[in-house]
Each structure stands twice: as C-alpha cells, then as structure tokens.
Amino acid sequence: MKCRVCREPAVIDLRRHNANFCHEHFVAHCEEQVRRAIRHFSMIRPGERTLVAVSGGKDSLALWALLGSLGYEADGLYVGLGIDDYSDESHEYARGFAESRDLTLHVVDLATVHGFTIPGAASATRRAPCGACGLSKRHVFNAFALDHGYDVVATGHNLDDEAAVLFGNVLRWELEYLGRQHPALPAADGFARKVKPLYRLGERETAAYCVLERIDYQVEECPMAAGNRHLGYKELLNDLEARSPGSKASFLFGFLERAQEQLADTTRARADADDAVLLRRCTVCGAPTPGEVCAFCKLRERARSTS
Amino acid sequence: MKCRVCREPAVIDLRRHNANFCHEHFVAHCEEQVRRAIRHFSMIRPGERTLVAVSGGKDSLALWALLGSLGYEADGLYVGLGIDDYSDESHEYARGFAESRDLTLHVVDLATVHGFTIPGAASATRRAPCGACGLSKRHVFNAFALDHGYDVVATGHNLDDEAAVLFGNVLRWELEYLGRQHPALPAADGFARKVKPLYRLGERETAAYCVLERIDYQVEECPMAAGNRHLGYKELLNDLEARSPGSKASFLFGFLERAQEQLADTTRARADADDAVLLRRCTVCGAPTPGEVCAFCKLRERARSTS
Fold it and tell me: What is the CA radius of gyration of chain A?
C-alpha cells in the first residue's frame, strides 16, 4: 500500500477516492478538501473573523486545526451542556487543544449563564434530548457570534453527518429542510453566516487526521444520543458505503449540485405565496423569532421552572 | 389479534397501517388500495381495454385478480424470457391462473418471435441481465398494446418496488428518472399509457393476498436477478421499515405528493432548453427512438449475431 502522491508507504486507504496516502499527503488531502469547500461556497472571505463551534470531538478539533493550517484566524466557543462527566471531559479536550496551539477558546456554560442543563431540559420537556441540545447550541453560537463581532460560525459537520441529515429529510421529503440544507447559509438580519467546511471529509477522515496529527479528542459518543434516529441513518449509510464505496459522497454532492437549488426555489415560492413568516425580536433575548418569545427562551423557561 | 373491521380473528397484521384484518377485510383493504390508486391518478377509465403485464409472480397475478374484482376487464400478456426452468414454471403459473378464471392470456416468446433469450442477451452484451430484461419487456408490452388496441398497460410494481427504485434514483439524484417516476405515465405518440395500480400495496400484502385467495404463483426470485442493486436497496429499506414502520410508504408517498412534480418541471424545463430530443421511428420496428434503430432492435441484433 503506497501513497498515491509520493509512493512512500501509506498510512490510510480511502476507498471512496480509490487512493492511499502517507501521513504528509493525507494531511494535504484534508487541507485540499477544506480549501475547496471554502472556495466553492465563499465560506470565509479574507479578513473575516471566524468562530468555530468546538465540542471537543474529532470533527470540531480537526476543523479548528485545518482552518489554522489554511491561514484562517479562528477562535473557538465551547458550550457547556451539563451532561455530567461527558461534558467535563469534552471541555478538557477542547481546552487542551486550544492551549497547545495558543488559541482563544471562549466558554458559555448553559448552567451558569442560562440556569439549565441538557439533561434537565430533556426531562422538563419529556422529549429526546438531541432536539433541546441542537436548539441550545444554535442559539448560543449565533448570539455569541453577533455579540462579539464574528462574521461567520464554522461547525464541524462532516460528510457522514450531512449525508445522514439529508437521508432523514429525503425519507420524509421535508422540502423546507431540504431547501435549507446547504454547506453555507448566508448571514441575515439577526443571523450570522453559518458554514460547514468539513462537508467533503468523512468521519473516518477527520478521525484519522486527529490521530495522525496527535490531537487528543473526546472519543465517546454523547451518552444522550445513543439510539437516536440520526445514528440509525448513519449505520444504514455505512452499510451502503461498504457495498458501494462513494455512495455517501455521490448522494450528498449530487443533491448539492443538482437538486438543492430547485427545492430551495420551491420552498421560497411557497413561503412567498403563504404570506412569508415575518421574523420579529424575541421579547426576552432579542433573537429573531416568528412568535413573541424565541424557542430557546421558552425552553430555558421551562427547564428552569421544572428543575 | 382481531380484525379492525369486524373483530373476528385476524389473519394478518399490517404494522404500517397499525391494523389487523380477517381474510375478508384484508381482501377488501387490498381492493380499496387499488381502487384509490386508480381513481387518484385516473389510471383506467370506463370502457378502456387493459393489458396486464403478467410474469406469473405474486404481484402480477394479484393485480390481475384485483382488477377483475373491481370490475375491470383485463387481458394478460406473458413474455417468455428464456430463463430455463424458471421461465417455464412462471409461464405455467400464469397459464394456470388465466385458465382457472377464464381469462385471456397472450404470450410472446422472445426466442420464437425475436430469436434471442435474456441469458443470451446478457452474455452478448456482457452486462447485467436485468437491463436487457427490462428493456425487452417494456418494448414487447408496449408494442403488443399498440398493435392490439389496448389503451393501457398495467404492471404489478408494488410499494416496495417503487420505493427501492426511488431510493436508487435519489441516491444518485437522477433528476430525469425522478421526473419520470410516477404511478401513471400518460400515453404519447408511440407509447401506450402505463400504470401501476399496486403502488399502495407492499410486497407482503400482495403475497398474503395470493395465499389467502389461493392463487398459485412463482415463489422463487428470478435466478438472474440475485445480488442486483435493486434487491440490495430493498433489503436496506426493509431494515428501515423494521425500525420504523411506515417509512417506505412515507418515503414514496411524500415524494409523489410533494416533490415529484417540481422535479418533473425542472427536467422538462431543462429538456426544452437543451433542444428537446426529437423521437422518430425505428427503421426496423417502428417504435419511437431518438436514433435510427431503437435500443430493443439493437439488443436483438447483437444477441442474435452472438448466439
């Protein structure tokens, strides 16, 4: 097994690319995929301030490292979710990485700042924790970026994540979600730009990148996510990929190249026809919301009053 | 386990419908699904002559029986594919069913009429046999319908078939195929109308219908199809259905209700912009074709000259 580029012994084979790479050229491959993603969707422009959503897992740390290698100055934000030891450990990995590279890591602890935790929110709402967690992270990252003058929020969603989300949305033909599923969502009033520079790299690639680059990361899956639907879709797509390498990439990239825009147009046309939902300001926090109080503030209120 | 309708002991549970049925009401359920399919897409109008594509398997025989129960007069056409014992047996099942119900079964034997068999075509083209088989059946059914004054060709494609085809087309975002995947394709110059009245019934339902109604059918899968991609997609969708009953139906019906039309519009708009492909007549058989000789005649020529 030899590196495709230099013919030295390879350390990883990527069946999807039908190629093997040595350490050096695998890192170059990862950088190239991120460079292409950023360029193709104008994700980050020169001089812009970037905030990386850092969980302490392989994807967000690989993202932070890769942005640095490509010359982007990016700070990190870790959101403390209060999931017992798991959150404490994840925070340690994030902090360790930031210190080792002399990077700025901001921290927003949900319990300290907002008075609730994800397990608390899940039991208050009696619903799956992943919904409350996603909502809280989106809110906190966006608000922090706006408050601190960041132009763009970069998240570590990889090819496997995006393919699994796409799969779930296609299974139910959720046209609105399909119309919005994109590696780069433009800024809008009250929303920072959101980008996913890792959408061309698989989970196995970001893990290998961290291992080879000696980045310590939280290896465990979140204990609250076990058995969720998203992980089921990932398994299913992994079966498909094993039978036919490249399936995940052609599914996601084919969507982005050939279908996403039409579905987005349809969604927009329908929204216009239906009296587009007008966003106003949440009376509690000022975030954009179609109602009086935003979903995050409602969740916080509910989680606080129950605990 | 009691029948949802009459509370008598049930013989089948349909998790997707969250219901159990006795023999009588299960048959009524199947009839109702076919009635709804036909009505919703105006598949067969009063007085029209229908040709059922009969393979001798559960779907085509259930379809023929159900059309009869609903008062549609339909003849059958069996195409002899020359797949050794499998084809002979399948023909026997088709003939037995037709005789027992006093129905007209036409037969076109590929070897006799066209001088080749599917195994022969597969080895001549060195490609998977399913492509040659589908092409040949589509050609023969269409030509027979036009030559003998049938208004519509009805095929036994069920919910599982349609969901698996949709899955394959979505995985590669084949917009053209997606735009054309529909339970009822209108007639056009040189093409009979094609309808799929079983698209609302799963494979398990058509099999149970045949068993309960004492219809003998070819139980074996086609030996040439083993391991093909379509069957792989079916397995995968079965896994999904087991985890979450109703997934297949919401995937297929959601597509038909919310996405098919947009994708068809896009395909049409693109075809118009690209100088739509003009169909002319095959110089050998007269079928519509974009080239000089249609794909079926080319296949036949190649299969004959190799054997």
Answer: 20
B269 has a chain A CB within 8 A of its CB: no
Q: Does A263 touch chain B (CB under 8 A)?
A: yes
Whether B250 sits inside 8 A of A172 (CB atoms) is yes
pTM for the whole thing?
A: 0.91
**Shortest alpha-carbon distance between residue A256 and chain B (Å):** 10
Q: Give the closest-approach CA distance of A225 to chain B in angstroms.
A: 17
- pLDDT over 60 at B275, yes or no: no
**Ranges in chain A, pLDDT < 50:** none
The arithmetic mean of pLDDT across residues B85-114, rounded, is 97
* Distance in Å, alpha carbon of A8 to nearest chain B alpha carbon: 35
Q: What is the pLDDT of residues B227-253, one digit of tens each?
A: 788 889 999 999 999 999 999 999 999
pLDDT in tens, A102-145: 999 999 999 999 999 999 999 998 888 999 999 999 999 999 99
Assign 3-state DSSP to chain A and report helix, strand, coil percentages, each to 5: 55, 15, 35
B262 touching chain A per CB within 8 A? yes
CA distance B37 to B90: 27
Contact between A263 and B258 using a beta-carbon 8 Å cutoff: no
| CA-based nearest residue to A134, from A292, A299, A282 | A299
What confidence score (pLDDT) does residue A306 get? 76
**Degrees to nearest 5, angle at CA A185 with A180 and A188:** 105
Of residues B232, B243, B255, nearest to A173 (C-beta): B255
ipTM: 0.87
Burial grade of A19 (CB within 10 A; 0-12, 13-18, 19 or more): middle
Q: B-chain residues within 8 Å CB-CB of A257?
A: 173
Among residues A64, A91, A237, the alpha carbon closest in space to that of A161 is found at: A237
Interface mutation target, options B171, B234, B263, chain A, most CBs of A under 10 Å: B171
Q: What is the mean pLDDT of chain B?
A: 94
Chain A touched by B306 (CB under 8 Å): no
Dihedrals phi, psi of A253, to nearest 5 degrees: -70, -35
Q: Is A104 on the interface with B (CB under 8 A)?
A: no
Closest listed residue to residue B150, CA positions, set B50, B43, B286, B38: B50
CA dihedral A207, A209, A211, A212 (to 10 degrees): 160
Tokens (6 digits) for B296: 């079926």
Q: Which of B171, B244, B257 sits opposite A251 (nearest CB)?
A: B171
Structure tokens at A56: 């302490």
Give the per-residue pLDDT at A155: 98
Question: Could you read off the pLDDT of B276-286 as tens digits, one per residue?
Answer: 668 899 999 99
Instruction: Locate A156 and state its tokens.
Output: 């570590």
Q: Is the pLDDT of residue B11 over 90?
A: yes
